[in-house]
Amino acid sequence: MIASKSETLYFIYGPPGSGKSTLARRLAGLLDLPFMDLDEQIQASAGMPIPAIFDREGERGFRQRERVALEAALQSGRGVVALGGGALLDPTSRSLVESAGRVLCLRAERETLFERLGQEVGTRPLLGEDAGWRERLDALLAVRAAQYHSFPLSLDTSALNPEEAARQAQLKFGAWRVSGMGAAYDVRVVQGGLDALGSMLRARGLEGPLALVSDSQVAPLYAEKVEAALKAAGYAVQRVVIPAGEEHKTLETVSHLWEAFLAARLDRRSTVLALGGGVVGDLAGFAAAVYLRGVRWVALPTTLLAMADASLGGKTGADLPQGKNLIGAFHPPALVLSDPATLSTLPEAELRSGMAEVVQHGQLADQALFARAEGGWEAMRANLDETVRRAMAVKIAFIQADPYEKNIRAALNLGHTVGHAVEVASGYRLRHGEAVAIGLRVEARLAEALGVAEAGLSGRIEACLRGLGLPTRIPEEIDREGFLRALRVDKKNAAGQVRFALPERVGAYRVGVTVEMDFSELLTI
Question: Rounded mean pLDDT of 85-107?
């Protein structure tokens, strides 16, 4: 029986010399999945090298063996599979593969293929052994060109080393394995993924009973769908709905969650699911971290802000009246599943708010993402799926390098020191992303004044944010004393000093910057 479509079955395809086996092997390692090379499997089962198979059985015999090996790969249900360059020419084989997993088709410039294949002449039967192999490769590429170009996911490996190619493949698939804090977990971006949630939990050995935590805005939209997927996989699930809004990110709400977990008879084997935005994820994750000294939890972010930022990294917590996230715990989830389909019901104001974190990630480490953001609102809305994947990739790289925020991960606080203070002082009337947008411009102005940032950076950042419909100035009516109090108790401070992550230019930053100044000046720059 062939496995149903799986988010843990990835196929690498493309012409000879495009780097399929090398990339697939590295990708399997990055995702902690089994690796299978279809040609290696064929040689092992035949007991002879591929040229010998062609000599004895011809291409027809080889293709028959290839189909058998492909069936075995499909039945495995999980892994990264390097396919032969003609493995999907047969429409039936292609249909089976695309119904079971996802295909990334590699390509490379003609001269690059020649250079790579020059050392392998004689090992590839379709190219032959004599000097005419280049012409035969040209003919093969011409025949297969339309098929290779027909795959929606593709990657040009011409200028990429193997490690870069594997990282780009992760971005294309929206698939990562994040390690740190003594645990490792999968991050997946899957369009329509909520419908497959039950099978995804089963594949990872996550047990019930389950508590599905959501808020009063998201639960009416998606809780029933999620419960249906979970029950179809045999899970017992208890829905727990909390009021929506940052003002409810309190210990009182956390206490309510603990009581609900008890009522649902959650034990140490149980799993908590957080369906919603950043507030839901922070609260449910924190409640899971403390309940029975820690149970597993799964993040199901439904907002752009949560997908790009809050759901990743294992930072959970709640607010105190004096400031944001002053209590919490590092408690990594067992799985993060972002379903971009949920963004279709997100109010435009919330979608714009989430763009602030996307801009921040692009400003830190993805110049192409930042350049797209500079193109304005419609350019960003045109492909939210890729926007989510690129923004997530930036944060994942930081948290992999520094899980406990002892050094480089502090760069993710860019815009948040001022932003959090503005958010608190506004009484949370400003959305988190709106406050971060303000923080990005103000902190860029501060960096320019200190000589940390290149001249004109704050203007470029302000123009980008305005093009996305985001505020960039601290409101005149803000509670000045509330702003200063929140700034002084920011969780990133040390020895009574306010510490900033400041930009130098797009793609460069400085962390741990302490500033001697009258911080009331920030209200006017």
Answer: 94
Tell me whether residue 407 is one of the annotated catalytic residues: no
pLDDT in tens, 387-402: 999 999 999 999 999 8
Closest CA to 515 of 458, 435, 420, 448: 448
Query: From the candidates 357, 374, 423, 448, which is the catalytic residue?
Result: 357
> Are 387 and 174 within 8 A, CB to CB?
no
Could you tell me the CA-to-CA distances from 219 to 60, 300, 431 in Å, in that order? Answer: 55, 12, 20
CA 206 to chain centre: 21
Cα 325 from Cα 427, distance rounded (Å): 15
pLDDT exceeds cutoff 80 at 491: no
Continuous segment of H or E residues that includes residue 192: none
By three-state DSSP, how is residue 30 classified? helix
What pLDDT sits at residue 224? Answer: 98
- From 188, 416, 431, 441, the catalytic residue: 416
Alpha-carbon distance 236 to 269, whole Å? 13
Helix residue ranges, H only, 79-207:
91-100, 110-117, 133-148, 162-173, 197-203
Query: Hey, how many other C-beta atoms are within 10 angstroms of the C-beta on 321?
Result: 7
Does the annotation count 409 as an active-site position? yes
Instruction: Select from 308, 23, 33 the least CA-distant residue to 153.
Output: 23
Instruction: Please say if 413 is a catalytic residue.
Output: yes
- Say which of 66, 350, 374, 405 is annotated catalytic: 405
Residue type, 168: Q
* Whether the predicted model's global pTM rises above the 0.70 cut: yes
Catalytic residue among 188, 239, 409, 431: 409
Using one digit for the tens of pLDDT, what is the confidence trace for 43-73? Answer: 999 999 888 998 899 989 999 999 999 999 9
> End-to-end distance of the chain based on CA atoms, in angstroms?
65
- Tens of pLDDT along 13-32? 999 999 999 999 999 999 99
Report yes or no: 432 and 353 within 8 Å, Cβ to Cβ. Answer: yes
Marked catalytic residue, from 420, 431, 441, 445: 420
Characterize 452-467 residue by residue with b for buried, 16 or more Cβ atoms within 10 angstroms of its Cβ, and e for exposed.
Answer: bbeeebbebbbebbeb
Write down the catalytic residue from 413, 431, 434, 445. 413
Q: Which of 60, 111, 252, 293 is catalytic?
A: 293
Q: Is 361 tagged catalytic?
A: no
357 is catalytic: yes
Residue 352 C-beta-side C-alpha neighbours within 13 Å = 19
Rounded average pLDDT over 456-468: 98
Known catalytic residue at 331:
no
Tokens 């000093």 belong to: 497
